[in-house]
Design brief:
Helices cover 26% and strands 21% of the residues. The chain starts with 5 loop residues before the first strand and ends with a helix.
């Protein structure tokens, strides 16, 4: 994809980011099940408080962060994963064709930049969910 980034970057504020370009303050987080709570009655996923706080604080420090949730990644084919990453990166202003910067696209209802809302439909959590690692996502980039 051509997006220039560091893996496991620590910001000057002390936050760890899975994939980040510190110069442009753009990052991608790979969020596994530990970042979510599941509503017992609906099965919907909601970001937990710690993840929401980290997202809000990073935005307040000028970071644009895209989130790849495990439930978006797990059942996607390789081509669908690439499209997902292109879409997420576009939301934070990373152009797929050249890896360059551009104005961020308006976030869609997938929670690409902002935490997902409880109203978004999410699949139930399987008993043994394989997690995407930041290395897996990084090699796709």
């Amino acid at each position: 994809m051509g997006w220039k980034h560091n893996s496991e970057h620590e910001t000057v504020e002390g936050f760890s980011l899975d994939l980040a370009d510190p110069e442009s303050k753009r990052a991608m987080e790979v969020d596994g099940p530990s970042h979510y709570l599941q509503d017992a009655s609906t099965g919907d996923y909601v970001e937990n408080g710690a993840t929401r706080l980290k997202s809000r604080l990073l935005r307040s420090f000028g970071w644009k962060v895209a989130h790849v949730a495990f439930f978006e990644w797990d059942d996607a084919s390789e081509s669908d994963r690439r499209q997902l990453l292109v879409k997420k990166l576009a939301c934070i202003g990373v152009d797929d064709a050249q890896g360059g910067d551009r104005e961020p696209a308006a976030p869609e209802s997938s929670g690409a930049v902002l935490p997902p809302t409880p109203e978004e439909e999410k699949p139930p959590l399987p008993d043994s969910t394989p997690l995407p690692s930041s290395e897996t996502v990084a090699t796709t980039l």
